[in-house]
Design a protein that fits this description.
Length: 199
């Protein structure tokens, strides 16, 4: 019984220490901890099973994040490109390398997660896909924040995903097994909600 009592005290002391440490870190920060970025941009997606590289596309993203301190943040990214499509669900981190209290804050980062490429049909081919494979991928990133605006570029890299490809509905061709690429370059601009300087 005495042993359990001392173990309980040790746990409580540890929890108290963690709470106090987090409080100090939080008070020392000049920027708010939580933020959500939402925006759009350009993506270059290639579906190489037909040796066809799709041109520029619009993408949309949502990226909530949490600042560990003023120089490091961690978060997740939800992103989709219409048409010859890739949907991604990833976790990432960013490191800022400028001093505090500056509006212009460049950063570098890295992300890992899952990519789900698929074909939703287009005006040229009307091709669709089913039973697409979700694959693992990663991306380095580079960008900067300016006030509540964020501009960044990501290089998304992953393995090919197996899928069943369906030709246009009016075609006599049968469906076939193909590969879809989750690889694409993106340049984005977004608006950040929260995460600004503390008053």
């Amino acid at each position: 019984m005495v042993v359990y009592y001392f173990q309980y005290l040790s746990i409580m002391k540890f929890v108290f220490f963690v709470i106090m440490f987090c409080s100090v870190i939080c008070n020392a920060q000049e920027y708010k901890k939580l933020r959500v970025a939402i925006g759009t941009g350009y993506a270059s997606v290639g579906q190489e099973y037909r040796e066809y590289s799709n041109g520029g596309q619009v993408l949309f993203f949502l990226e909530p994040s949490f600042r560990l301190n003023d120089k490091v943040s961690v978060g997740c990214r939800l992103e989709v490109t219409p048409g010859k499509t890739v949907a991604s669900y990833t976790f990432n981190g960013q490191c800022y390398w400028v001093k505090k209290s500056q509006d212009f804050r460049p950063f570098v980062g890295w992300g890992i997660g899952f990519y789900h490429p698929y074909l939703s049909g287009d005006v040229f081919y009307g091709i669709t896909s089913r039973q697409e494979q979700t694959v693992f991928g990663f991306y380095p990133r580079l960008g900067f924040d300016y006030g509540h605006l964020t501009l960044l570029i990501d290089w998304n890299i992953g393995g090919y995903a197996n899928a069943t490809i369906y030709p246009p509905a009016g075609s006599a061709l049968p469906s076939f097994d193909g590969n879809l690429s989750p690889n694409y370059f993106s340049a984005k601009i977004g608006l950040q909600i929260g995460g600004g300087k503390k008053k």
